Amino acid sequence: MYDLVVLGAGPVGENVADRARAAGLTTAIVESELVGGECSYWACMPSKALLRPAIARSEALQVPGLRGQVAGPLDAHEVLAHRDAIVGDWQDDGQADWVKSIGADLYRGHGRLDGPRRVTVQGTEGDRHVLTARHAVAVCTGSRAALPDLPGLDGARPWTSREATSSGRVPDRLIVVGGGVVAAEMATAWQALGARVTVLVRGAGLLPRMEPFVGEHVAAALIERGADVRTGVNVAAVVRDGSSGPVTVVLDDGEQVMGDEVLFATGRRPRTEDIGLETVGLAPGGWLDVDDSLRVTGHDWLYAVGDVNHRALLTHQGKYQARIAGAAIAARAADGTGEGAGAGIGDAGPWSPYAATADHAAVPQVVFTDPEAGAVGISLAEAEAAGREVRAVDLDLTAVAGAGLYAQGYRGHVRMIVDPDSETLLGVTFVGPGTGELVHAATIAVVGQVPIARLWHAVPSYPTLSEIWLRLLEAYRDGAGRP
Asked: Is 184 annotated as a binding residue?
């Protein structure tokens, strides 16, 4: 018997286990694939290993004295070899050793719920284990790519995010179907590595969950570098010529787009279809509803952390939830009632150590395209949809001297969303080279609900991109964004 059993040893499951062990709880963690999960081997880490050379080269081309040194193409072989090293050649020995180092027991195999507080594990060596949880089971099984139901798609062997981040060769022609983060980042990476990229977007533009100007900047950059970006198009069918021949994407107007590989970046679905949810009265295959302590609705012992609860499909947000869940599980265990009354969890309010408040008010994200984009909090469209009266302050990032020093011909934009009653920030969005490093300052301002009057005393260093904060405050003072 263990105090806690964790299903899934990705970054989320690892963090839940680590917090529980640090609090003195006995912990088992179950993993059916590689310890370290999607982020370590098929998402965050390999994708950024592919993107960093592309972005560094692009920025160097805008710096006097460097252009002639980096004018040639990227060394694709070296980039792919570095990607392989970053993911440990898809071996998880180091991460498995880390799990053992924190005192958790690792079970390799497929774990399934088998009634309340009980998990069965079908081991990879044919062995079978039955684990019982004294206090909690945490479902941290993540998500996988969702493919549309299209004629010919199964036989066409499309890329998903996994193939896009792990391919050992650069296709001559890559078709990207989708307009979200995976689509935009992988179009950026593979174009820089030498592929001719066509992006097919069903909606009006790229990165639709962010402010509209973000997708406009990213699309413009892709087009300038030779990509074909089409919006408002729908895919009707996919055909692969033989076992390894070219692929044809047929649009609903009959037009055909030819490529050597096709990536479908069209959403995610939870990995909950075969983990025994039906044994505890929950529907298999769906997202799991949770409260702010990440406890599944109607189950005082079951937690769902990370992608599976559909709050924010981001590794850093899942790890944040894991810290909250680990604290809540430990406090409830120490309280002894399961409800945490003694620890005050039942009365936990916003920004409590037991409440994932940032899921609602301050989710940060950086998109590693060229140019980079980053945002935290709500957008103008989200504020308007919620009926909130806000002021939006927009500025071109060339308003600061640091932009011209960062790169000749610098292009970028920022928008700040302000609650005019409290004069605090509700959201900030950036696009432009180097802006990913500006997001955390915005996150602190939003989470801390720092009044604009106090932000005047947060003096930005000169001459850096962060001086845009001063320009935003000046624009707000001078009436920008006022109806």
From this structure: yes
